[in-house]
Amino acid sequence: MVFLYHCVYMINIMQTEHDNLGGSAQDLPLYQQIKRKILLALEQKVWRSGELIPSENDLATLYRVSQGTVRKALDELVAQHFLLRRQGSGTFVATHQEEQSKYRFLHLANIAGNFEDSQNRILLCAHQKAPAIVYECFSMGPEHIFVHIRRLMSFKNQPVVLEDIWLPCPLFSELNLELLQSWQGTMYGLFESHFGTHMVRAHEKITAELPNEISVEFLGIAPSTPILNIFRIAYTYGDHPVEVRQSQNLTNDYHYANNLS
Amino acid sequence: MVFLYHCVYMINIMQTEHDNLGGSAQDLPLYQQIKRKILLALEQKVWRSGELIPSENDLATLYRVSQGTVRKALDELVAQHFLLRRQGSGTFVATHQEEQSKYRFLHLANIAGNFEDSQNRILLCAHQKAPAIVYECFSMGPEHIFVHIRRLMSFKNQPVVLEDIWLPCPLFSELNLELLQSWQGTMYGLFESHFGTHMVRAHEKITAELPNEISVEFLGIAPSTPILNIFRIAYTYGDHPVEVRQSQNLTNDYHYANNLS
DNA sequence: TAGTGGTCTAGACCACATA
DNA sequence: ATGTGGTCTAGACCACTAG
Asked: What is the DSSP string of A117-154?
């Protein structure tokens, strides 16, 4: 029975939590405590991306709370895209393989406001030093090495985005050109399935700039063309930064679409 | 008793809904039906911005459902910023006067990632024709007139944003320069308190451009300076568009901050 | 002290997916 | 047929606000 299998893991985690919080759990509501425990289990990879987690009833038994309390914890985790519910099937760890998450981290739309599939070309994948800002983002010393990826994205076969990506090295050391070129799907899907790193959120700083030399070359534009510059830091479980990305976007035919609410 | 006062309104609304949906309410879950009724009441200004709405128990009695079902409807409305809960006090119609909504529709942050208060100068407030795109956004014929506002926003007394705002005319006809200049607070707060129009969401299209002549003049920049251009349509209850705004943002010292999740 | 929202429970029934 | 999540109910108790 799946339930018993998970029990072994979960009891460990429950007790770890118990120790950390000193019994009273800081007076957080029960459902918040359970939410934390599930998040910790996700961070510690008790359940992997795409896997089925125990049913609401099993979790309720495990945590010694009612099913309604588990449900409230799951509600929030689903709203934050950590989990995915399928009625009749169960609750699953969210992945970047799902159709619906294809444009979750890519907000570039055409004039009509629709998202299009991109054609991608990997220009570079090397172990290198990185710009100073990258070291700051990861709080790492200057001796560290990063995997540096450069990618050109085209829409309707017109180059639109040139991005430089830096990934910390112990974790992504095995990443190479062949793997990137053969992969069908989003980059975050690749990171998840081959490196066990699931991106949960990102922060972007958007500015208007003049293009760098590489953008001029690969986007085929004049050096005076205004470029939408996006500087992104992406985070995995536990708010650990695991990717820094700078992209230069040609916004003649496309725009960054954002909903405020 | 406040409860009885509201009953008169609510019963009308309930019956309107009932007629529209033909009894079976399209098989929507109860809490979704109640959410719709509350949204309709907000749209029809049964309760005004900032006002207390009936308690969960009163609403439950009114709609003949359990308090838990009302709560689930309110949960979603609060998450979408339509309502605001205050424990011990009650549930209120959300406003743009609250401190927390000051930067809800202004995502410009300084290098450290913090939001700053702006100094605003109204350059223009006139009843005018508008660019063609504005007519499209409102689905209005070319005979219509709009209120056109031009505003310069500065941070640390350096001009950073120049925005042009178009508002449809029957609704905002009374808007004038004196009112705009004397108003302390956000523009959406003004629209809400003086024109009964509460913005609930907006969509932005962001591009990099060269500045228009007016931006060159008022931002004090060279015509070749890249500018972050934001084209916004803002909506009130019922997804009716009520504002079109184009802003040109100088992103030398500030950036558009966006969280993806 | 009374009324409000916030948490938690227990149990019923429904809709859906899978075998 | 079974087990899953989805909805709905009724009731208890707690935390907070205000008169």
From this structure: --EEEEEEEEEE---HHHHHHHT--TT--EEEEEEEEE
Q: Which residues contact B181 (CB under 8 A, 6 or more apart)?
A: B122
Q: Is B255 on the interface with A (CB under 8 A)?
A: yes
Bases along strand C below 7 A from a protein CB: 3-11, 15-18
The reply to whether B14 touches chain A by the CB within 8 Å rule is no
Separation between the CA of B185 and the C1’ of D18 (whole angstroms) = 28
Q: What is the DSSP letter of A51?
A: P
Q: Which of B202, B206, B258 sits opposite A228 (nearest CB)?
A: B206
Contact status of A116 with chain B (Cβ, < 8 Å)? no
Residue A212 · residue A219 · CB < 8 Å: no
- What's the Cα-to-Cα distance from B144 to each of B135, B139, B191, B196, B242, rounded to whole Å? 8, 10, 20, 21, 14
DSSP lists the bridge partners of residue A232 as A204, A245
Strands B240-249, B227-236: parallel, antiparallel or unpaired by DSSP?
Answer: antiparallel
Chain A, nearest residue to B107 by Cα? A260
Tokens 């990258």 — which residue?
Answer: A134
Nearest-angstrom CA–CA distance, A97 and B10:
45
DSSP at B144:
-
Q: Give the chain B residue nearest A81 (alpha carbons).
A: B261
Go through the domains of chain B in sequence order and give each one's CATH number. 2-93 (1.10.10.10), 99-256 (3.40.1410.10)
Q: Is the CB of B31 under 7 A from strand D?
A: yes
Q: Please write the tens of the pLDDT for every residue from A13-70.
A: 333 333 333 335 568 999 999 999 999 999 999 999 999 999 999 999 999 999 999 9
State whether B228 and A208 contact (CB < 8 Å).
Answer: yes
* The model's pTM: 0.91
Structure confidence by residue, pLDDT tens digits, B39-69? 999 999 999 999 999 999 999 999 999 999 9
3-state secondary structure B155-209: ECCEEEEEEEEEEEHHHHCCCCHHHHHHCCCCHHHHHHHHHCCCEEEEEEEEEEE
Cα gap B12→B62, rounded to integer Å: 12
Each residue of B130-156: pLDDT tens digit?
Answer: 999 999 999 999 999 999 999 999 999
- List chain B residues with CB under 8 Å of A109: 205
User: Hey, are the CB atoms on B227 and A226 less than 8 Å from each other?
Assistant: yes
Annotate B215-224 with b (16+ C-beta within 10 A) or e (fewer).
bbebbebeee
Task: Label residue A95 left, alpha or beta by phi (over 0 means left) and psi (-120 to 50 means alpha).
Answer: beta
Mutate to test the interface with A, among B187, B250, B256 (most CBs of A within 10 A): B256
Q: Which amino acid is at B226?
A: P
Helices A56-63, A2-21: inter-axial angle, 10-degree rounding:
40
| Order of all β-strands in the sheet with A52-53 | A52-53, A90-93, A83-86
Q: Which residues of A touch B224 (CB under 8 A)?
A: 224
Task: Extract the tokens encoding A225.
Answer: 């063309």
